[in-house]
Amino acid sequence: MRTYEEVLSLMDSGWRVDDAGRLNFLRQVNKWLGQPDRQLRIVHVVGTNGKGSVVEMTARILEAAEYQVGTFTSPALFDAREQVQLNHHNMSKSAVVHWYEHIRTVLMAHGEEPAALSAFEYWTFMALLYFADAHVDVAIIEAGLGGKRDATHVISRPAVVAVTPISLDHMQWLGNTLAAIATNKVAVIQPGSRVVSAQQEPRVTAILQHATQQVQATWQAIDVPVEILVDTPAQLRLQIAGVPYELGLRGQMQAENVRLVWQILAQLDLPTTPENRQLGLSQATLFGRLTVTGRVIYDGAHNPAGAQQLANELDNWGLRGHVILILGMLADKDTTAIQAALTPLARQVIGVTADNQRAMLATDIAQHTATLGEAMTQAKQLATATDWIVVAGSFYTIKGVITHGDLASEHDAFI
To answer: What is the topology classification, in CATH, of domain 4-283?
Structure first.
């Protein structure tokens, strides 16, 4: 039997979404595996920004009501097993090995090489098998990249398809226009599904509604009144449908995310009380999504919309001109737009090379540069008593600054 570490080393981390026949192959593999998705009540979450927050808040509320909840999200930040959780407990290493070996055996029995699946595809199938075996009450599955050729598109009967705000990202794979990206993402809508959505641009809403009608799904998007009562680095308090709630997550963008969470809960045959919702929202945490630890803010903003949301929040908190920005980005992102949103707020920018082979060089980001291991130390030396340190641009940047800078205690204390 292979070890967990050996299993990880055998998986190919590349994407296969540029293969036009990919989905047909994945559906065939799913059949070979017994179509575990058909044993599950699934909420399929797609969109550009906010997917992780929507999954986290929905799961916490349902767990507070004592349901068994499986979640599949990406990317993992510190441990690959973060992607597959059962009631917020990572899939065990032994379970990863077991289900990997099962999938590998099935592939070989049908004449396919184990390398026929990418790492993300393996994790998708492992999650579905693991949740089906655990007989979860609900599985909340986040799409990885787009929708049309994403591995999660093998899900054939989602109870709910939830669409977070759609904006420009991954354009080299999904298309160069908002309409093209929206069309790619909504391909996951299946016959009989209930479709709910965050507020979108009118042309995106039209695409969503058309796709829903075309496959005989049901459009269930409704307006949920949400008012921001308190929005500071220390506290986010919202009034949702007339009831005040304290949130564990931060940022005014959570008002839009929670509207979608309320819509998801309305479509599930899993009753929850206001007390469940309050407890769940207060317990929701997601490291790297506007995470505040002391006077350091970590945000994985890696596309123009995410960067603008972060900039808006820093402005709302009165931090313009009081930011030491540690910025590292991937070169295949819209780095110009990300920088345009974030750098005007900073008193000093420290460029770093993110911990990824696709990273933009630190010297192309800012005049002042640092290694990932030195960045936080330099930022703290530059910061005055009124400054805040912001780490942004990529989840790979956050991971690198923490791991190379020996700051694991900040992450450990947070979770």
So the answer is: UDP-N-acetylmuramoyl-L-alanine:D-glutamate ligase (3.40.1190)
Specify the residue for token string 């609900």: 138
What is the C-alpha to C-alpha distance for residues 122 and 240, in angstroms, rounded to an integer?
38
Q: Is the pLDDT of residue 411 over 70?
A: no
pLDDT confidence of residue 413: 44
Whether pTM exceeds 0.85: yes
DSSP class per residue in 43-111: EEEESSSSHHHHHHHHHHHHHHTT--EEEE-S--SS-GGGGEEETTEEPPHHHHHHHHHHHHHHHHHTT
3-state helix/strand/coil string of 228-284? EEEEECCEEEEEECCEEEEECCCCCHHHHHHHHHHHHHHHCCCCCCHHHHHHHHHHC
Closest CA to 305 of 47, 53, 45: 47
For residue 12, give the DSSP letter: B
* CATH no. for 291-414: 3.90.190.20
Each domain of the chain, given as residue ranges in start order, spans: 4-283, 291-414
Confidence of residue 107 (pLDDT cuts 50, 70, 90): very high
Q: What pLDDT, on a 0 to 100 scale, did the predictor assign at position 410?
A: 55
Query: Is 90 exceeded by the pLDDT of residue 148?
Result: no
Q: Are 149 and 23 in contact (CB under 8 A)?
A: yes
pLDDT digits (tens, 9 = 90+) for 268-319: 999 999 999 999 999 999 999 999 999 999 999 988 988 999 999 999 999 9
Identify the DSSP state of 325. Answer: E
Q: Does the fold of domain 291-414 match that of domain 4-283?
A: no
- Measured between alpha carbons, how far is residue 309 from residues 130, 225, 313 in Å? 35, 20, 6
Dihedral sign for Cα 372, 376, 377, 379, please: positive
* Alpha-carbon span 382 to 385, nearest angstrom: 10
* Block residue for tokens 């110009």: 336
